[in-house]
Design brief:
The protein has helices at residues 3-19, 37-48, 59-73, 80-96, 101-112, 133-138, 148-165, 170-178, 185-198. It has 206 residues and is mostly helical. It has a single domain, classed as Lysozyme (Orthogonal Bundle), CATH 1.10.530. It is globular and about 50 Å long.
Length: 206
């Protein structure tokens, strides 16, 4: 591994360690933005899709990852059935949005510390700390941002939107998600958690 990569991994891990003991919600100053009609329609359609939650991918591999993630999450979410529902929903909503489920876990870890009813000082809500104005922009009045699937659906759709704006640049997309574009503390913290706590590689075949 090159020196630059080692230094980058060390920086990510350091940010993760500095933030590990924090338990408050960390939503930033994400501002309401004016969406074009086509973007608003596309995001609203993504939110409205109510197809059944399911695991996506090669079954044996997905089950292996689910079991490992469940073990890692046990200290934060002791109930096994709750963990399974949570992780299945994360895997499905991340996959349908074209996101890495491990990145979404890192976002949730940092944003709410896996607290379903977390509320930030800016009124962001739930696991992925979704700002309420998004319900008005792309949802309907009956959407409850403390509902597991609704919160993850919004969060993943919004992060996908920012990735599209930033042409796949994860650092800039994460900064937009936090409302801190131009700064690196939040992206580094999330990527550090992904690297140190939620990174997963498929087992190599013999």
């Amino acid at each position: 591994m090159s020196l630059a990569k080692r230094l980058r991994k060390f920086r990510y891990a350091l940010f993760a360690l500095l933030l590990a003991a924090q338990t408050t919600a960390h939503a930033g100053a994400q501002a309401e933005e004016k969406l074009s009609h086509s973007v608003q329609t596309s995001m609203a359609s993504a939110i409205a899709d109510r197809s059944a939650t399911r695991l996506v991918g090669e079954p044996a591999l997905v089950q292996t990852r689910l079991a490992e993630m469940s073990t890692r999450l046990a200290s934060r979410m002791p109930d096994a059935e709750q963990r399974r529902e949570f992780l299945t929903t994360v895997q499905y909503e991340a996959s349908r949005a074209g996101l890495d489920p491990q990145l979404v876990l890192a976002v949730i870890n940092h944003e709410s510390a896996f607290r379903k009813y977390a509320i930030s000082s800016a009124s962001a809500r739930g696991y992925m700390q979704v700002m309420p104005f998004w319900v008005r922009l792309i949802g309907t009045a009956d959407h409850n941002l403390f509902h597991l699937r609704t919160n993850l659906r919004y969060g993943c759709t919004i992060l996908r939107h920012y990735l599209d704006i930033e042409k796949g640049d994860v650092v800039r997309a994460l900064a937009r998600y936090n409302g801190s574009l131009g700064r690196f503390e939040y992206p580094n913290a999330v990527l550090g958690l992904q690297e140190s706590r939620w990174k997963w590689q498929a087992p190599t075949k013999p």
